[in-house]
# Entry
Amino acid sequence: MTDSITITDNRTGSSLEIPITNGGVAASEWQKLLPGIWFYDPGFVSTAACESAITYLDGEKGILRYRGYPIEELAERSTYLEVAYLLLHGELPTESEYEAWRKEITYHTFIHENVRKRFLEGFHYDAHPMGMFVSAVAALSTFYADAKDIFDPASRHKQIIRLIAKMPTLAAAAHRFSVGMPFVYPDNSLGFTDNFLSMMWKVAEPRFDANPVLARALDILFILHADHEQNCSTTAMRVVGSSHADPYSAAAAACAALYGPRHGGANEAVIRMLTQIGSVDEVPAFVKAVKEGHGRLQGFGHRVYKSYDPRAKIIKRTADQVFTVTGKNPLLDIALKLEEIALSDEYFTSRKLYPNVDFYSGLIYQAMGFPLEMFPVLFAIPRVSGWLAHWQELLDEEAKIARPRQLYIGKEQRSYVAMDQRGR
Ligand code: CMC
# Structure
């Protein structure tokens, strides 16, 4: 057996053999035989847009690994900050490397006063925190002119540190503004996640010490959300990054992609759905309606995972730990019933629809006191490390500018018609 495919152009009878490399066939080879014939693949369902050494995902087997390390082991034994280092550097840090990394990130948690005072506080009083967040990330590019030096290693490193460090500060600032609370400055004596919780919840106490169970649960959620190979927002980061835009502008595009309900907004949609269902007794009727084509089961299904989402399993366990501190989220019983019914229903099993990462994460966020509008922001905080790892990889590979083709289905050439002669 040869690891290759042979394509034949039936118009001419010419054939070409193309090797299968790393599970793919090169479109550049295809072009040699069929110039001007494009793959038609809306939504990139069958297209690999790059080679990547960051995250491995096997959707059939439910496997997710960052740089070769299983997500289960990282969630059990690592921290978000260490995982961010791993994604960006390819290896786990030694003790001294980690200490230097932690110090650098901690040093850059503050944001320029004008970002908060003039920019964030200029939003309308009821602005959605994710809308504020997307804009604030883009605005950072105007504060760091050196960000344009994307091929200068020192500058690139600095922007990576700044982005990872400032995401929690921007996120908390957007929240505090939206609820009319004063901004809380970073407390650099705290760890990454504890500091974020302090900026979110501190009122008048001199120091806010988060409940360690909740801080660890959030850190696990940050680990689980740190990367997910070529998802919609990472693709946005890569596409914009391929034009050599600065990393803040590219990350803002990625944040915008994450905002949508099919991506980072799904956990918010799950809570709205569970609230709408209202009680366990209403679950069968809701599932029936979904099967009849009225809406979707939010938090179910995935483009890639077709057996189970390994992150959902870890999150379900984490939810139990969180509820021992916060009390059970009253929506949990509805969620469990929904999962039970859906997993035994042929409609869902035949379409390989299982709970995804968002099915339980919203329940945890809600139990911890985060408003629904903050859910996509919570997703963006850790995902920036994944976005940056892909951005860095793309620049190192000297990737071409992203520029897909189209199959034109519009009008043939026609002549301009004067307005007074355009009777319809
Ligand atoms: N509820 C009911 N039916 C569904 C669902 C769902 N959640 N998801 C897919 N289907 C059905 C769909 O109607 C279609 O059925 P049919 O073949 O009869 O037309 C079939 O399953 C295939 O669906 P698809 O839309 O072609 O699948 P996709 O790979 O394009 O979409 C998805 C993936 C995640 C967008 C989709 O499953 C969905 O909308 N899920 C709900 C939203 C959600 O939970 N999103 C979070 C994704 S995980 C976090 C992240 O990575 O951002």
In short: The chain has three domains: 4-58, 70-260+371-393, 266-367. The mean pLDDT is 94.
